[in-house]
Amino acid sequence: MLTKRIIPCLDILDGRTVKGTNFLQLRDAGDPVELAMRYCEEGADELVFLDITATTEKRKTLAKLVREIATHINIPFTVGGGINTVEDVHLLLENGADKISVNSAAVKNPSLIDQLSKNFGSQCVVVAIDIKIIDGQWMVVTHGVVIPLNWKPGNGPGK
Amino acid sequence: MNLVIIKYNAGNIQSVLFALERLGMSATVTDDPDLIRGADKVIFPGVGEASTAMQYLRQNKLDQLIPSLTQPVLGICLGMQLLCEYSAENDTRCMGIFDQVLVTRFNPEDRSIKVPQIGWNKINALQGPLFNGIEDGAYCYYVHGYYAGISPYTVASTHYDLLYSAALQKNNFYGVQFHPEKSAATGEHILKNFLTL
Fold first, then answer.
1. Could you tell me which of A51, A111, A63, A42 has the C-alpha nearest to residue B14?
2. Quick one: which H or E segment has residue A103?
3. What string of pLDDT tens digits covers the 197 residues of chain B?
4. Out of A1, A2, A74, whose CB is closest to B187?
5. CATH architecture of the region B3-195
6. In this model, does residue A43 exceed pLDDT 70?
7. Chain A contact residues (CB < 8 Å to B)
8. ipTM of the complex
9. What is the maximum alpha-carbon separation in chain A?
10. How many CB atoms lie within 10 A of CB A27?
């Protein structure tokens, strides 16, 4: 049977790994490729890289980093952060990502999930959902925990 | 060594190339029959859909070339399935090297067993040179919704809902359902075993 997987997740800002507390007070945590290789050696099953700046101008830099990671590690990895379109995903997969992860865009436009799975196969599409307790209730939040939606887990959008 | 990766309309070639690079090897990616025929070893990778892949192979006459090869050939994932007799994925007749081996979709009664299988699973009952030095029960990385049944060509098995072929071998033809290029040290060892056949 399938085993449980241990998947370290690295936050990437301007090509560097960063570590923060609740997405704030970010500090530099090193070179993503070096860290990725170390996690592999230590027995990680997969890796996740989340580009937390992910603006359109930075997209090409991320693709380059993805390619660099793909050449150096021998386990599957997922890339997320600011993915909005089929083209965004194509560029990341083409450079060696095994899966991509969508968050805000999938909450805003759930049909994106269908489009991506049709184009690339459901095996490489991951949806991440951020939740936070607001006024004592679990709420879905997007855009790096800024905009609360009227959407509770298990309740569907807008219900 | 002259190593060739068969180029066709299925993804995943890049990660195989990267894995070979990590082993200090380079490979030519081509669909040229002469280059494929002249290679010392041939890798036939693939993530994709069976019928469109077979259609492409037929259009380029690769469906006749591949079964005629005499050097070691390694099919990976969809590549392995296309070396079988038939795939239920869009009712596709395949190359039939692993004759009478049928490729079927997982259809678990237990809904907690997800299809496709994605993740790390054990390989057992290992036989043959591909698995030299690999421990029974080693973990490999899988991404697939269709599987090849157990047959006389089975040289490794995996259990997911049922027991199926993790690897097949017939003469110079080898096939693995898992992704050695993504299976950490175990996968690299298996690739190395193939490259030193």
1. A63
2. none
3. 999 999 887 666 889 999 999 999 999 999 999 999 999 999 999 777 899 899 999 999 999 999 999 999 999 999 999 999 999 999 999 999 999 999 999 999 998 999 999 999 999 999 999 999 999 999 999 999 999 999 999 999 999 999 999 999 999 999 999 999 999 999 999 999 999 99
4. A74
5. 3-Layer(aba) Sandwich (3.40)
6. yes
7. 1-3, 5, 40, 45, 70-72, 74-76, 93-96, 98, 121-123
8. 0.87
9. 46
10. 8
- Beta-strand ranges (E) seen in chain B are 3-6, 28-30, 41-44, 73-76, 84-87, 92-93, 98-105, 117-123, 138-144, 146-148, 154-160, 162-170, 173-176
Please count the residue pairs, one from chain A and one from chain B, whose beta carbons lie less than 8 angstroms apart: 56
- Using CB atoms, pick whichever of A1, A40, A123 lies closest to residue B159: A1
The residue written with tokens 């887990």 in the block is: A153
pTM here is 0.90
Measure in Å the smallest separation between the Cα of B75 and chain A Cα atoms. 19
Cβ neighbours, 10 Å, residue A91: 18
A77 membership: H or E segment, kind and range: strand A77-80
Q: Please enumerate residues of B whose Cβ is less than 8 A from a Cβ of A.
A: 11, 14-15, 18-19, 21-22, 47, 116-122, 139, 141, 143, 145, 159-160, 179, 181-185, 187-188
Under DSSP, the state recorded for A82 is S
- Nearest by CB to B15, from A72, A96, A122: name it: A96
| DSSP code, position B26 | -
Note the pLDDT tens digit of each residue in A48-88. 999 987 566 666 788 999 999 999 999 999 999 989 999 99
Select from B9, B13, B14 the residue whose CB has the most chain A CBs within 10 Å, as the one to mutate to test that interface.
Answer: B14
Of B100, B1, B124, B103, give the one whose Cα is nearest residue B46.
Answer: B103
Q: Considering only alpha carbons, which residue of chain B is nearest residue A77? A: B182
